[in-house]
Amino acid sequence: MMYWLTLTNKGYQTYIDSLSTIEKEKIILEKLTVDFVAPGEQQPETDHKILQEKSRTGNANQQFFREASSEGYFSYEMKTNAETELSLMVRYWGAEWGGRKFDIYIDDEKLLTEDNTGRWNQSKFQDIRYKIPSSMVQGKNHIRVKFQSIPGNTAGAVYFIRLVKRVDDSAIKD
Length: 174
What we know:
The chain is α+β, with helices and mostly antiparallel strands. The chain has helices spanning 9-32, 42-47, 169-172, and strands at 33-37, 51-60, 63-79, 86-93, 101-106, 109-115, 125-132, 142-149, 154-158, 160-165.
């Protein structure tokens, strides 16, 4: 059995335009990316010198992830290329269950506490950007990004981690 996508002329144009917009956004994001980790994949984790305790990997929604529970953690060494205006971009799944409260550290200095418990309740990926203060990366070519679960919670699941150059949001949605 075969299925064919059928669209009106207007629907077809809308579909093509949406694909073009998505592709342009991917290209811009790649240009802004300083370093990228694909958690749960062996080579990228090895390349980024993973450290972990009470952490596990899995595959959901056709992507690999990593998470840590029972006060566990996972961390990666990431290149900054001596950039000081950086943000941390993290991909989460928007319909996680259970406690998802955890701390994010940059070189053992707490960046923030995140709580994704029931945050979105949408079955789609959520890409969240966290501004990294320049003082946390000043004079460094590498930083260690750590996700630490809070007691009774799980850190993650994290589907990707990017260090990206900070720009005005209007530049991204060109």
